[in-house]
Amino acid sequence: MSKTSRHPGEGSAVEATAPTLGATAPTLGAGSGLPSAGADTRAAGHSAQRWLSWAKGGVFLFALLPWLRLVAYGLTDRLGANPVEFITRSTGTWTLVMLCVTLAITPVRRLSGMVWLLRLRRMLGLFACFYGALHFATYVWLDQWFDWASIVHDVSGKRPFITAGFAAFVMMAALALTSPRAVVRRMGGRRWQRLHRLIYAIAVLAILHYWWMKAGKNDLAQPAIYAIVVASLLGARVLWALRRQRTQALPGSSRSPAKSDSTVSRSRTR
Ligand code: HEM
């Protein structure tokens, strides 16, 4: 994939470059025959790339902090009286937080106009899966000690909150496995995007998982906060999709259905 044809999860090339290069720069650079304008555009492009690399590095380190904290606490014997519970809860919470942050990228981008945010989405989604894998591994290894009969029992419905969490994790793993650019290319943008809409089901199942777990302890304050956050993030998408449909249905609308089905248009709703 060339530098300008972005990963579908990172938005279109148009969306990704427009704010940093400015609205008029591409037209000047492309066909006006003004070499200085082209050089300016290239320089702006390079500095934007450099800035984005720094931003990505910063977000990467920041997203790694919860894991580094767990490792540091483990090495210094500070995981508390029940280390397994500490690790399970910490990794579960960070899975959910990373999911919410990933889902927040599109609404924040739409409201703020900060298109470059889309370039962070894939990494954040992979971090959600990373913490989900640690969470699942903690359950299988430290909580259940590889007692597969008990695990299958839990997952198959004995403990519904585990069933919901497991379903969410399996879907998350599918999204992570299909995130490399080579896989996106092989699948085709549309099929990839259809599959990656599973993120919405994952978010709902994650909330159910948390809700059911805490319902047994009559302590729904925190799950309620996450439920409101996820409902707002998904609700905003539903509202925008309905508004777009209405705009397209208006007689004389210049946005044909064919265009609305394009990669660019779809990436805006995710
Ligand atoms: C997207 C996937 C998942 C998310 C977002 C998630 C999230 C969470 C959260 C937020 C908690 C509560 C943390 C707290 O008490 O503060 C939790 C607890 C827990 N989760 Fe998950 N989870 C996921 C998948 C799984 C899976 C796959 C399993 C096991 C098959 C699992 C097993 C557990 C267990 C055993 C607890 C602790 C229950 C307790 O302390 O009583 N979770 N999870």
UniProtKB/TrEMBL annotation:
Its cofactor is heme b; FMN. Residues 91-207 form the Ferric oxidoreductase domain. It is a multi-pass membrane protein. Belongs to the MsrQ family. Signal peptide: none annotated. Part of the MsrPQ system that repairs oxidized periplasmic proteins containing methionine sulfoxide residues (Met-O), using respiratory chain electrons. Thus protects these proteins from oxidative-stress damage caused by reactive species of oxygen and chlorine generated by the host defense mechanisms. MsrPQ is essential for the maintenance of envelope integrity under bleach stress, rescuing a wide series of structurally unrelated periplasmic proteins from methionine oxidation. Keywords: Cell membrane, Electron transport, Flavoprotein, FMN, Heme, Iron, Membrane, Metal-binding, Transmembrane, Transmembrane helix, Transport. This is Protein-methionine-sulfoxide reductase heme-binding subunit MsrQ. The keyword Transport applies. The chain crosses the membrane at residues 51-72, 92-111, 123-142, 162-183, 195-212, 224-242. GO terms for cellular component: plasma membrane. Heterodimer of a catalytic subunit (MsrP) and a heme-binding subunit (MsrQ). PANTHER family: PROTEIN-METHIONINE-SULFOXIDE REDUCTASE HEME-BINDING SUBUNIT MSRQ (PTHR36964).
